[in-house]
Write a structure and sequence with these properties.
CATH topology: lipopolysaccharide transport protein A fold
Number of strands: 11
Structural class: mainly beta
CATH superfamily: Lipopolysaccharide (LPS) transport protein A like domain
Order of helices and strands: HEEEEEEEEEEE
Number of domains: 1
Distance between the termini: 25 Å
CATH architecture: Sandwich
Radius of gyration: 18 Å
CATH class: Mainly Beta
């Protein structure tokens, strides 16, 4: 009997560990983006800007920090198309936080892909993976690649 329950739990494990909610509230990808950094380099020829040194990006309740953030503008040059963060990336949305080596944020779709030793903390719970894809419009995150977590049973 115990073996059957254990096998049921193991078979359900991938579904439990792979999809999590991130950011109790939905994020508005159309909200203005504020960036602060120690230095800024602008490349007019490819329509990009590179922020370096203690970079902090804010959009609504969401905050992203990294060593370097490259901003790619739309061809029209009047809107941000996407952002690429590298070096100790931290994403905070409400009381939840995620850390990774790098993150790519597509502004129009509202999707952030974090890669490299991703660690998500939600209260006392934590989950890690190689990659996490967050849809800011729905607040759902998909974890992929060696997903690891500890499920709290409520008993201590």
């Amino acid at each position: 009997m115990r073996l059957a329950i254990f096998i049921c739990i193991l078979s359900a494990w991938p579904a439990l560990a792979q999809q999590v909610a991130f950011g109790g509230m939905q994020q508005d990808p159309s909200a203005p983006v504020e960036v602060s950094a120690e230095q800024l380099s602008v490349n007019q020829s490819d329509g990009s800007a590179v922020f370096t040194g203690n970079v902090i990006v804010g959009q609504g309740e969401m905050r992203l920090s990294a060593a370097t953030v490259r901003v790619i503008y739309a061809e029209e040059g009047n809107a941000i198309e996407r952002m690429q963060a590298r070096g100790g990336v931290t994403l905070v949305n409400g009381t939840e936080a995620a850390e990774a080596a790098e993150a790519d944020y597509s502004i129009d779709s509202g999707v952030i892909v974090m890669r490299g030793n991703v660690l998500v903390t939600q209260g006392q719970s934590a989950i890690s993976a190689d990659q996490m894809t967050v849809d800011l419009k729905t607040g759902l995150a998909q974890m992929e690649g060696r997903v690891r977590t500890i499920l709290q049973t409520g008993e201590n």
